[in-house]
Design brief:
The protein is mainly alpha-helical and 519 residues long. The protein has one domain. It is 84% helix and 0% strand. The chain is built from 21 helices and no strands. Helix 4 packs antiparallel against helix 5 and helix 16 (380-405) packs antiparallel against helix 17 (407-433). The radius of gyration is 24 Å and the shape is globular. 44% of the residues are buried.
């Protein structure tokens, strides 16, 4: 029992360390992304914001198909061969990936450019979408190349450089470009220009960041022809199935917006996108732990310590709940105020959808735990099959409900499908490992959250419908919620361990020391 507790403490400590670095990256990324989208939404209105959202979704789907999963394959093999003896094996893989990505990216960009008017008019019945698709398509080759360079950076353990380029550099330049283009009077072309500036900047930045490592690889001796052929075959065999997982995953997340664009109009897509953007706040908590969760459980799985994996999974689900319950409550209670403060009153049509999607966001936050556990067991096909079925169900239900209830129907369909997906993944995890990741303490936390919510409702007339009123309500809710959590002894020794470790790591003077601890 002592060894089990020691292993669990070690796993939770690693998660605590990882959450600090991830938190900084996520916080800056979310903040800059929110600023960028808020400027677009407020400056150009729901229709332009809808056009931007649709174009972004379509370009991402085209890019996913063009990638052939090579960036994920390069990450695996460059990490595997990142030593003096085997580094020469990365050279043919990198050359092949760069050449293929440039060709496939250019082909897909040309196809989207040529057929942009067909997609815009025949599918979404909005000719204004054409110009967005045509210009956005020019960024596809840059996206593919930047993904390869980012994989090289990540495989070389340069986490801070990777985070800066991906989360901070491109978003900062997008905001800067958007401001400049608006000031010089480019109107809606400001959106297009800022997007392309961000795509090009991440391509250039990732190349500069990976240049020394790439040059080191390219300076290696050539391996034999037969070895090169065998290695490329293995590389492609590993990479190409990833396309389906990535494409189905992307489609799963965006079916609701695509159906709204097809059945309703781009203005409705813009209004609905405001709801999905706000609900993404509920993804912060799982992202804090998920990047380190899989490596931690894989390590314990290699030792056959299923009990440690079980307890770690339950603990992470509890931490996600502890953070997300207040966020969910506030989105559900004050949707109009939040929408008005962030995006403006013209997006209040998203109010009902936001309340429904808040429930979807809360449910979906637990799916990462289950998919990580299934990945640990090598059940990638099971994940893809579940997501494929869920996507098909989502598509069918969305078509029915959107045609009846509009964007509210899309929110209902998405929430239902996320609930179905969580149950499906939970059953698979329990069947494979006899693990139930959700703790019963979550029910206790949900019940406790009703008390401060009731207090806020009773004191509603004392809170102004602006940011100051929202902050006052937030302070009162947090104080009551945390007091009840402590008084009910909902926190155990593992929770206090996490808090202690996070406070300790937060006192470190720089990220170099923190990343060193992680390694």
């Amino acid at each position: 029992m002592a060894d089990k507790d020691k292993d669990l403490d070690k796993s939770l400590t690693i998660l605590a360390k990882g959450s600090i670095i991830v938190f900084v990256g996520i916080f800056l990324s979310k903040l800059l992304t929110y600023i960028y989208k808020i400027i677009i939404a407020r400056s150009f209105g729901p229709e332009s914001y809808g056009l931007f959202s649709l174009a972004l979704i379509i370009v991402t789907l085209f890019s996913t198909l063009a990638s052939l999963g090579l960036s994920e394959g390069l990450l695996r093999y460059s990490s595997l061969y990142n030593n003096p003896r085997d580094l020469k094996k990365v050279k043919p893989l990198l050359k092949f990936s760069l050449t293929f990505s440039l060709i496939s990216g250019t082909v897909c960009a040309l196809l989207l450019f040529v057929y942009s008017s067909l997609i815009a008019i025949n599918v979404f019945e909005n000719p204004d979408l054409t110009i967005y698709l045509r210009y956005f398509s020019l960024g596809i080759p840059f996206l593919l190349l930047s993904n390869l360079f980012l994989s090289a950076i990540k495989s070389n353990m340069q986490v801070l450089r990777y985070t800066f380029i991906l989360n901070i550099l491109q978003n900062t330049l997008r905001i800067f470009g958007l401001f400049i283009f608006i000031l010089i009077g480019l109107k809606s072309y400001s959106i297009i220009g800022s997007y392309l500036l961000g795509v090009i900047s991440i391509a250039v930045g990732s190349y500069i960041g990976a240049r020394m490592y790439v040059q080191k690889i390219m300076s290696q001796k050539e391996i034999g022809v037969s070895d090169k052929k065998s290695l490329k075959k293995e590389f492609v065999s590993y990479s190409w199935p990833i396309i389906f997982v990535s494409f189905v995953g992307a489609l799963f997340y965006w079916i609701d917006s695509l159906v709204i664009g097809y059945l309703v109009d781009t203005t409705s897509v813009g209004i609905y996108s405001v709801a999905t953007t706000i609900v993404s706040l509920l993804s912060i908590a799982p992202e804090l732990f998920m990047q380190m969760f899989l490596p931690v459980i894989l390590k314990e799985y290699s030792k056959g310590k299923t009990d440690v994996i079980n307890q770690t999974s339950k603990q992470v689900s509890k931490w996600i709940s502890l953070i997300n319950i207040p966020v969910f409550t506030f989105i559900f209670m004050f949707p109009e105020v939040i929408i008005t403060i962030l995006f403006g009153p013209e997006y209040l049509g998203a109010t009902s959808s936001l309340k429904i999607l808040a429930l979807s966001g809360f449910i979906s936050a637990f799916s990462g735990i289950n998919t990580s556990l299934l990945s640990m067991k090598g059940k990638s096909k099971s994940i893809m099959l579940t997501l494929s079925i869920a996507s098909l169900v989502n598509l069918l239900i969305s078509f029915i409900l959107v045609s009846i209830y509009g964007i509210k129907g899309a929110a209902i369909a998405t929430t239902f499908v996320w609930f179905f997906t969580l149950i499906a993944f939970s059953i698979q995890v329990h069947h494979s490992m006899k693990i139930i990741a959700l703790r019963r303490k979550i029910v206790t936390l949900l019940i406790l959250s009703l008390i401060p919510a009731l207090v806020i409702m009773l004191l509603g007339e004392y809170f102004e419908e602006n940011i100051y009123g929202l902050l006052k309500a937030g302070v009162i809710y947090s104080v009551i919620y945390l007091s009840l959590v402590l008084a009910s002894k909902s926190l155990d020794k593992n929770d206090y361990l996490l808090i202690k470790k996070i406070i300790g790591f937060a006192k470190l003077r720089n990220f170099k020391g923190l990343s060193g601890n992680l390694e």
